[in-house]
Amino acid sequence: DTQNQFDADALTLNRFVMANTHDHDLVILMNAIATSCKLITSAVQRAGVAKLYGLAGEVNSTGDDQKKLDVLSNDMMINALVNSGVCAVLVSEENEEPIIVPPGRSGKFCVAFDPLDGSSNIDCNVSVGTIFSVYERRPGSNGTVEDLLRNGGSCLCAGYVAYSSAVEMVFTFKGGDVHGFCLDSTIGEFVHTRNKMVFPEDGGKRIYSANEGNSIHWDQPIKDAVELFKSGEKAYAARYVGSMVADIHRTILYGGIYLYPADNKSPKGKLRLLYEGIPMAMIIEQAGGIASTGMFEGKIQSVIDLVPDAIHAKCPIIMGGKRDVQVVYDQYKKAGVDV
Ligand code: P6P
Asked: Where does the record place the Fructose-1-6-bisphosphatase class I N-terminal domain (predicted)?
C-alpha cells in the first residue's frame, strides 16, 4: 500500500536526543519527562471514566483551585524526575517551595515545570499542556534554587506537550532548532514528526490571541495595536483557547501573535517566568519569532533576558512572528517609548 504504516527506522525521542547531544544524562532526563507526559496523557484522556474531573480541594502557588488532575499530573512529574537520578532541583507551579532531590538520587539538571497548564479548561475537555525548562547546576553547586533563578540565556532545553486531538511534544536545545514529536500510542513512543518548526516567512495567518476581557486595563499602545489588528485592510481573526500551549503551538505553526501584557491590574502580567515565559520565549525565538515583555518595569524587554527574582515570578508576554510584534513596537514608538 502507498501509506507506509510501519517505519522500521522511527526517530524516537531517545534516539533524537542521543544523536543531537550525546549527553546520556539528557537522554535519561528527556525520557523521564516523556514518561510522565505519557502518564498525564492517560490520566487526561481517561479523566471522565476515572472520575478525575473536579477540584482537589487545595489551592496552588498561583492561588488557583487545584484540580484532581493538577495534583495527579504534578505527582507523576515529580516522581519521574526525582527517580530519574539526573535532577537536583525541581520547581513546579503546583508547589509553593522548590523540591531539592535527596543526595543519593541527585544529578546535574534543574527543571521548572507547569505539569498541567490551562487546567481550568480540563473539565470541559479543552486542550491543556505541560511546559518545562531545563537548566544545569552552576559549577560547584550541589543544586539550590539559585541554579534556576537565572535568565533564559542559561536555559539548556525548553519544551511543551500539547494534549489535544493528538499529543505533541515540542522542544528545543539552547541555540538549536525547534522540533515536534507526536505520541504514537500504538508503541507508546514520541516519534519525530516536525523537523525545524519555524514561523511562516511572511508572518503567516493574521491571528491575534489575547484575553480581551482585560483590555480596559491594558496600556494605550497595546490597545492601539489590537485595534489595528481588528481594523487593518485585512482584519485579523481572534483565537484564544485560554491554554497557553494551545495558543502558542497554533501561533508558531500558523502565524500571528499571543499577548498577555502587563496592565494596571497586574503590573507584572499573569504568566510565570520560569515555566511559562522563558521556555515559550526560547521556543518562539528559536523558531524565528520575537518574545517581548512589552512595557515592563519602565522599558520594553526581551523575556529571555529577565532574571527571576523568585521561583513563581511573573512576566508580561507579547510573543509571535516579527510582522505582528512589530505592530506592537510601532505603537510604543509612537507613544515615545524607546524600542
Ligand atoms: P486568562 C492558564 O491558567 C494560563 O496560565 C495559560 O495557560 C493561559 O494562556 C492563561 O493562563 C489564561 O489566562 O486570564 O485569560 O484566563
From this structure: 12-194
